[in-house]
Amino acid sequence: MKELQRLKEQGNTLFRQGDLTAALKTYTAAINQARAAGLYNARHHWRPGLPQAGLLGTIYSNRAAVALKLERYEQAVWDCTMAAQLLGVQLAEDVHQPPPPADADPVVGKTLLRAAKAYEMVCAITARPCCLPGALVRTS
User: Fold this and answer.
1) Which residues, in sequence order, are CB contacts of 136 under 8 Å at separation 6+?
2) Which CATH number fits domain 2-138: 3.10.20.880, 3.40.50.11310, 1.25.40.10, 1.20.1250.20?
3) pTM of the entire structure?
4) Known InterPro entries for this protein (predicted)?
5) In which band, very low, low, confident or very high, does the pLDDT at 135 lie, cut at 50, 70 and 90?
6) SS3 state of residue 137
7) First vs last Cα of the chain: how many Å apart?
8) Which of 42-46, 89-93, 105-109, 128-132 has the lowest mean pLDDT?
9) Which one-letter DSSP state was computed for residue 138?
């Protein structure tokens, strides 16, 4: 857990410094370390009750922010989806869903914004209509 936190903070520093490639590699190293530790399997199914879920959700959301800046929009969509699952929410296509509660982790809101931007860019590039996630729905 300490190593995951250290890698997240290192990635954040690199992101703030504008070293996007290094930040991406650092967040990816943290995710790979979680996998090597057996925290999830090859199909990206996380262990139930995972105490590091919030931290890993933040790492995925941060990696999505890097992917957006690098114009890797499909990766950003994937990372936002993983972040949402780990944070106990799901990306919902129904814009009539209620927004997250005011006391929700701020990473939840950031993840929603990043997902919407990534979906928007994927749709613009592919020139096809897409469903944008309109809300996050708490699953826990």
Assistant:
1) 84, 89, 90, 91, 92, 97, 99, 100, 108, 111, 112
2) 1.25.40.10
3) 0.76
4) Dynein_assembly_factor_4 (IPR052004), TPR-like_helical_dom_sf (IPR011990)
5) very low
6) strand
7) 22
8) 128-132
9) E
